[in-house]
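yo

u said u wanted the structure for the complex thing, so here. seqs first:
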Amino acid sequence: MRAVPDCFRGLKAAYRREMTAYFGAPVAYVFMTVFLVALGLFTWEGARFFDTGAASLGPFFVWHPWLYMIFMPALAMRLWADERSAGTDELLLSLPVGLPGLVAGKWLAAWTVAGAALAFTLPMWASVNYLGNPDNAAIALTYFMSLLMAGAYLAIGAAASALTSRQVTAFVIAVVVAFVFTAAGWPLVLSGISGIAGSAVAETVARFSFLTHFEAAQRGVLEWRAIFFFASVIVFFAGLNTLWAARRRAP
Amino acid sequence: MLEIDSLTKTYARRAAVDRVSFSVARGEVLGFLGPNGAGKSTTMRMIAGVILPDAGDARIDGHSITAARAAAQARLGYLPEGAPLYEDMTPPEFLAFLASARDMPGPGRRRAIDRAIADTRISGVTAKPIGALSKGYRRRVGLAGALLHDPPVLVLDEPTDGLDPNQKRAVRALIARLAPERAILISTHTLEEVPAMCHRALVVDHGRIVADGAPEDLAGEDTLEEAFRKLTRQEDDAQAEAV
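structre next:
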């Protein structure tokens, strides 16, 4: 009976604390600005948004996994590493709240910043509607999946942050793990794997890829499997995060 | 109020804390003395539920830190060594964070924060981020955090470390004001403040209690500092002889 309110209390306290940290200092604003500039550059320069001649956000969404792979670990790297280096983890562990709530609260705060950054791209959606007749249902679905995918990248980043007291180390570990999950669905990698180990192995690898699960949404297909996949990744890494954050307490 | 029963913690096969037992009654201020690395902070961390003991238990107001951690932690005010704080928050923001983690309800929360700010005399710096405060003020913000929920037991790890004489006196006065209703455990390096602040003192060395008594009894004929040196050097001397 007590476990649920305990957990929720920790979540609320940690969420408020992290929101102060993100928005009290310029961290969140700098993050959002750099992220939006990078996304804009890739969309216009990399994917030739206007040259496609189609009213579609395809050239915009195609970059999301690759940018998240770098930006989400940067957003999450301070979550636990900073507590360790400042010694405030001792303060957290002395509070009558459970670790799972703290893990969820910190992750949710980072996800809020990521969601806010994504919300600033909504004018793109408005412009394609002005220019033509896009498939708005598919776009809405892709936005939703993009947000969910950002949460998965953040869960990886937060877990890596609980491994070390150095933010840079946490960032590098998270980017490497995120790259593995992203590139697992890259055609270049997949054709290489299928050439060496056969197509069955390549298909298995692709099953764990963020790219593969994100692409279905871009075609306007609502895949429950993809939603379940990203949710599972979030829960799995939140579990690792809790275990790794608890190491200080364990005998 | 605070009962410690055979607390033990071993790191790399070396006992950092070795079957330490003692208790602190309501109205008592117990000084926890010992050289660096004697096991003071490790003992305090186990009492606060930050690290789990290998064996033994601590009961805070009757609640076991191993069997009912959250209930025990709810009744404890803890100031960790060095008073770690969130530097980007102002003192009221920091206290509001602790209040929400401790589930203090709305109107009571506001009153508790105001009272902790008044008790620790930090009302002049409430608009500044903690990172911009002097060491003395930061220590007092840490103390405000420990007092916020009006706990019956306080565990303060070196609350006067690094403070100037005026700040030390202010912290000692605060502890004296808090003492009658609470059980307080304080670790310190500064031996001269022990008689002024504590009713009783424990000396630990190599993870074990080597002396327990009123500060004046511990000192006997010597000064407290001489007594402390004799008590905590015995083992080193014995080791030196063995070599």
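The mean pLDDT of chain B is 87. The radius of gyration of chain B is 18 Å.
cya
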